User: Fold this.
Amino acid sequence: MTLEPGLYVAATPIGNLKDVTYRVIETLKAADRIYCEDTRQTAKLCAAYGIETPRAAYHEHNADRVEAEIIAALKDGAAICLVSDAGTPLISDPGYRLVRAARAAGVKIIPLPGPCAAIAALSAAGAPTERFFFAGFPPPKAEARATFFKSLAAVDATLVFYEGPSRLAESLGAMAAAFGARRAVVARELTKIFEEFDEGALGDLAEKYKAHPPRGEIVVIVEPPPAAAQASETEIDAFLLAALDKMSVKDAAAAAADALGVARKIAYERALSLKKPR
Ligand code: SAM
Assistant:
């Protein structure tokens, strides 16, 4: 098969090696070169499908140097594939700069769609999907993470995060403080032997994973804030009680106003009365 020149952005499996399209395999075989986030990781896919195309590394540490080399080859008429270790390149993975530079250089860019952990998790979590917000990895440090979640509290969409197992419990706890008692789903080890979907209120999930630290790769799906008109007194109280554990009355009221669409004054008065007996 002869390929049209261009940059092929190819999605690869996120666990199960069978989750790869015919088109991706054909293209990887026919390309002049495959640029990989980690050549050893891509070697496993190539070995499974008899792909012998030369491979080279393209990752965040060599991007400055290698980018010019790739663009020059593309301008010369090469067919080049870009893959990451797993899933769709550019989605919390390297490639954005390269695609942008290739586009600026007038090179044809061809997406080869396939696995993406965020989409796989969404497709099975049972959360609303008419609008979702992919937020990637939360910042690792507590303060930046709290600010990050706070900035997302009023987003009227299902939220999708990537997270590592060692930070999951802390992240879920910080999400509970920012988002209240929303339903969430922890999707773990998708397409692999120990695939698991675990759903519950954010605070409950935080407690559970604090007691039993998980293993493997994780996507967290958080349902949208309840609509303002529909936020019941019980929901508002649950949100405020969780928030009051972590912040002042004023901040808890502001967070409730952002997350649930309650009037700030009402949220403040309610937060004050909930705080008093403690
Ligand atoms: N580009 C990839 C994609 O399309 O999903 C994501 C790459 S990002 C560096 C890796 C993160 O994706 C992991 O830390 C985890 O949060 C998520 N992830 C990747 N594979 C996964 C899997 N099999 N199950 C659950 N989450 C996964």
